[in-house]
Amino acid sequence: MTKHAAGSRKRQRPRGATVAAVLGVAIALGALGYATVVSVPSLASSARSESGLTDTGGLSAADGVIPGTVSIFNETYAGITHLKPDMLASLRKAAKAAGDEGIEIDVTSGWRSKAYQQKLFNQGIKEYGSEQAAAQWVARPGTSIHEAGDAVDVSGSGAQAWLVQNGRLYGLCQMYANEPWHFEWRPAAIESGCPEIYTNPGQDPRLAQ
Ligand SMILES: [Zn+2]
């Protein structure tokens, strides 16, 4: 029931289909005896998320790669466990409160290694045509708040809307208008509210070279 909560429709469905397809391929490869470290394509890519790697070759879960989405309560993936401890605790508190309202908070990307961010950025350059255009969507390697363990990308519009509404109470803020899935750890927000959001990451002085 929680999975199909109102609001999570449009983006979720194609993504679910991709997940199924990719799992199918993974299972087929497994059956053929291929090594299990076959790249796990990010399933969020079709949703044009800044966390969506289409090719994770050379990266692994140790870089923060999450196959599809995982619960914020996951204890296995570095993408979750390497988040700042205070942020993770607060996120889990928020997820419990959201859960009481029937909304599940899952994550497509949390902590990332620099190699992961570099790969994302390279992919962005290919996709958007230039470094400058890519920087509107993807932080430059070495500057991403994900690398610091202070950001998560949340799956599903229901969870995103819930966090936009209530995240502040947990020190979690949306930062970019064009990234409704991206939330950062801003403990001061609990007292004084979230900062004004930027149109896109290209406007964020923290992400300049
Ligand atoms: Zn993000």
Automatic annotation (TrEMBL):
UniProt organism field: Nocardioides baekrokdamisoli
Name of this chain's protein: D-alanyl-D-alanine carboxypeptidase-like core domain-containing protein
Residues of the D-alanyl-D-alanine carboxypeptidase-like core domain: 82-186
Alphabetical GO biological process terms: proteolysis
Pfam families reported in the protein's UniProt record: VanY
Any one GO MF annotation of this record: peptidase activity
Domain of life: Bacteria
